[in-house]
Amino acid sequence: MRPNDTELLFSDRLIPLLADLRSAGWRALVQRVAAAGANSLEQTAFVLMMVRLNACASCNADSYRAMQGCLTCSQQTLKRFRGSDEDLLRLFESACRDVEAHLARKPSPSLAPSARTLEMDTP
């Protein structure tokens, strides 16, 4: 177990460590995403794809997966993935579309902080 390797969701810092788990196409994708930068659409989509594959939302501190750490969980998930690398690339492309769609949505006015709320928070 790696004591500092468990996070709430898959972390973008782990992306480069997944490069050598599959084919050259997968390696090229991982290297491209890792080089894209933390705020890039590609890196956000890759994190979303891994969160979905790893089922991060159902992981908790007492689970075996959490005790093993996020890197080990991600490595096992990718090694056990029954689809092809082309399937993984399609999942990544789907995650890219999902992130783009989310970013294109206008924020709901009900979610925006009101001036009254901000005034009440200031001393």
Describe the structure.
- The protein has 123 residues and is mainly alpha-helical.
- The protein has one domain.
- It contains 6 helices and no strands.
- The chain has helices at 24-36, 41-54, 64-68, 70-80, 85-104, 115-121.
- Helix 2 crosses helix 5 (85-104).
- It starts with 23 loop residues before the first helix and ends with a helix.
- The relative contact order is 0.16.
Summarize, please:
The chain is mostly helical and 123 residues long.
Oligomer: single chain
- Which descriptor suits the 3D outline? globular
Number of β-strand runs: 0
- Report, as a whole number of angstroms, the end-to-end distance: 46 Å
Count of separate DSSP helical elements: 6
Order of helices and strands: HHHHHH
Beta-strand percent range: under 5%
For the sheet with most strands, the description reads:
none
**Rg value:** 18 Å
Structural category is mainly alpha
Overall pLDDT: 82
Parts with pLDDT < 50 across at least 5 consecutive residues: 114-123
- Approximate helicity band: 55-70%
Number of domains: 1
